[in-house]
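Treating backbone geometry as a discrete language has practical consequences that deserve illustration. In the encoding step, the backbone of a single protein was reduced to a row of integers, each denoting a local shape. The amino acid sequence and the backbone structure tokens for this protein are reproduced below.
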Amino acid sequence: MEKPSPPPQRVRAHVFISGKVQGVSYRFYTQQKAKTLLVQGWARNLKDGRVEAVFEGTKEAVEKMVFWCNSGPPEAAVENVEVEYEQPENLRGFEIRYRWED
């Protein structure tokens, strides 16, 4: 009898996207993309004009999300994507956050 394969390892990417990323529905498109890839997390605007997001899921799915962030939605003009890998917190769902932390 074959041993069952272990569940895929969960990873967490904390990303900061800069450029023309606010006022172009970046958070909405990020949420839609995350849902298609079964990625959990959140996205929000920052006071300095960047978008901050957290993605949790399989390594493959999270890497696809980070790659997608480099282009973003049609109206965006992404200049830079900073990525920090962190310990997953087992988030559920994907939300758009409307308040930034001071």
Remarks:
- The beta strands are 10-20, 40-45, 51-58, 77-86, 94-97.
- The helical segments are 26-37, 59-69.
